[in-house]
What does this fold into?
Amino acid sequence: MKKFLVAVSAFTLLGISSASAHTVLISSNPGKGSTVKVLPSKITLKFADPLLTLGKRAINKVVVTAPDNSIVTVGNDQVKGATLTDSLLNTKAIKGKYKASYRVSAEDGHIVTGSFTFTLQN
Ligand SMILES: [Cu+2]
It folds into this structure.
């Protein structure tokens, strides 16, 4: 009779967490919580990591709404590295609080959403 050794399975720890976290918004123009006297011609959002681009698919987007909830971004979102921009309509320069909402994906493929406000003063 042969003796059999019980093979002990070696469990590989696959729970190695990714070194890179989701990207975060670093800065913007207009800035978060800031007050501007003139609505700029575009909004600029700068993230910690280069944003993902897939051809012409709009996977990165920022939408700005005026105090009357009308949308003042044109929708021509453009990505350049870690920066996302969109043109702003100046025709609806209503005074008050504007809200910028974004939905982006950095190169790790994770969707990151967020929003902030700024104020247009005369
Ligand atoms: Cu991530």
